Structure formats: C-alpha cells, structure tokens
C-alpha cells in the first residue's frame, strides 16, 4: 500500500544506492532545484535535467529582454550546476512526446516537474485571433530567438501605433523594445530576424499601455518602469483624470512604498514633454479591452475599450465597467495579461489556476484532494503560477527540496535504472538528445557568430541547426 502525504518514502542515511532524481525543465525553477539537491544530498544524489529544446536556461534565454544582459548573468551559476559530475543534461527531450511521464517515473526515485508556462491567458474578446494580434509571450519569444516563434508573422512595416493590453513587466519590455532605437539593440543578443525587422520598419510612433485598474495598482516594478519612461526622445502621456487618486489609493501608497515610487515615476515623466519628440508612450488607465477592431482584410486596426472604475467587493477591490467606450487605432496588438502552464498527461491539473495542485511542492493525486502522489514533485510557475522574478524560483526550490528531504527515511532505495536507462531508451527510439557538451558547442557557435557582428551572441533559431551543431 502506498504511503500517504507526510510518509517517508526515500532514504537519507544508510543508503544502498544514491537518490536518482529527474527534473523536467531546465529553466530557473529546474536548475535551482538541481542546485539545492546537490547541496542537500551531497554525494548521495544524481540528477538528470530534461528540456524539450536543445538549449538550457528556459526563461533566462527566451524571456529576459535582450537589453537586460545583467539579469542573464545567472546562467553562469546554472552552468556551474550543469557541469557538476552529479548532474546530467538532456536537451531535445520532450516529456509527453518522446517519453511518457508514466515511463519516466519508474526510472527514478523522484521526478520534479519544472516545465514552466508555455501558454497564455486569453482576453476572450472579439477579434482576438485577427492578424497582427499576438500574445506578449509569442512576441518575446520572437525577439529572443525561441525556435517556436522564429516564423511568427510579425510585420512592423506599416505599424505606427501599438496597443499593449496589460501593464506588467512583460508588457513594459515589449513597449521598451518597440520604442527603443534599433541601434541601441544592435549590441544585445536580440535575434537577428527581429533586429532586421525593427531596422527595416523604422520607428514605431506610439505605444499605448492599457490597464483595467489605476496607476497605483500597476503590476510592474519600479526598475522596469523607470527604464521605459526615461527613454530618449519619447514623450510620456498620462491623462490627469486617470492619475487622480482616491483616499484608498493614498492608503495603498502609504502602506506599500513601491506603489508610491511607481506613481511618482509616471506622474513625473508625464510632466516632462521633450521638445520635438517623435515617439509617444501613452498610459491608458481604467481601460478594459473589449474588442480588437478588424479591418476588411482581416487585420487588427485598433482596440475598443470600456472605461472602468474600482469598487470594493467581498473579493477585494475590482475593476468594473462603466458602460462608456473608446476606440484607439493600432496596427499591432499585444496581449500581456499572464502566462499559463499546460497540463501533462498523468498529472492532476488545476485548470482554473493553470497549475499542478500540490502541497509545499508535493504533487497531489487529484485536484481538490489531499493525498500526495509519492515521488512526484513540482517547482516554479507550474507550481505557483506565473509570478515573481527569477530569484523567486530559488526560494520555491528550497521548499520543494525540503519536502523531498522530509519524505526520506533510513531505508534502502529501490533499484532504478536512472539516467543510464533513460539514455538507452531514448537511443532506441531515435531521440537526438543533446548533452551539456552539445549545448556548449551550440553556445560556442552562437558566441562566435555574435562576435562577428558586435553582439554577445547570434542565437541559432532552428532546432535542426542546433542539433547539427551539437553533433547529435
């Protein structure tokens, strides 16, 4: 009979073999988990890290903006983890396609799901699927050279105005890259096709950021907001009526100083109107998109929004519609209202929250239940939802590894095939798995390609080219 939650499942002392762990996902959540396992178990653990792409590092590679090179320095730490002899990396291995989770689990004592969020929340409005409308995630993947987005039909040639639905950090990244001079991006690791598109298109004249709530409730952080509102040659606009604050807003800014800083950043930037500005950033607060307007050719030509106001309800303060509507022209519409994780066969899933149900990182057998699925753990966005910064995943990994450690008992571990068995199975199936040495060959080619054009790297955007370069 399988133990229930809280039972001790694995061993920490007097082992006959080392703990064999497989982590699904090589982004920050997965690699922080690997790092914590090495520190916690010492020589008594072996870790295999899988990723569906040949390249590691997940969101650090495909999500962090090209002009945020300092944030990407965490890859040095992750590289050290992957080079540890107790860790094996297997890229180009898709759990669910190349191997089922039900096949993977018997090969290891524990499996950690850390595969992030590769889908998006939808607006749920007419016109959302028109040409020229993209999820911000897709646009970010496009300019960061993610293979899945290299052929995204982004056309900037006739774009003068962009509508961004949302005001979180991802929305701000998109706005900043569209308003920034292409020459300022030419020395970053932006994908070559994106830089070419920005150069050929000229400069976007206007970016509008639409938020359902007010400036005090903006979901971004001060650093990213400051970068955006201080761009050279960009005039910032925030209508005075939308910047008015209520007593509740004042109380919120007093309680959370970051709210005050962001409000002051927007207000201060809007008060400075650079002479002869050719580009404009327009904050549109208390505006909820209700329709993407579409021209006769089927392409987006604007957004229709409903004005909102904030109301206190038993669920907290929410934005409610007023029945007043405005229309705003835009030739490109980006939806930045949240990433969303996808379910994996054989694992319970909370479809409403878009996460794997868990208790402190222990996966539950079913949504709404209390019994854990022994030996199955979760970390990162698929555990808690798409919140926090890269470093948040370190604390998240601590909790998951602590749970795994508490689940262990002074009993011999059952024999498992581990990484050797997995590699043999993949070989038999013809899966071209990329080890860390293969990734280093990809890395070396990218760095060399970048050096030739004055960039940190020129990303390879084709999986086929990656595999050839890796030598598999």
From TrEMBL:
Name listed for the protein in its UniProt record: NADPH:adrenodoxin oxidoreductase, mitochondrial
Positions that bind NADP(+): 212-213, 224, 388
Coiled-coil spans in chain: none
Catalytic activity: 2 reduced [adrenodoxin] + NADP(+) + H(+) = 2 oxidized [adrenodoxin] + NADPH
Major subcellular site: mitochondrion
Sample GO molecular function, one term: oxidoreductase activity
Subcellular location: Mitochondrion
Annotated Gene Ontology cellular component terms: mitochondrion
Alphabetical keyword list: FAD, Flavoprotein, Mitochondrion, NADP, Oxidoreductase
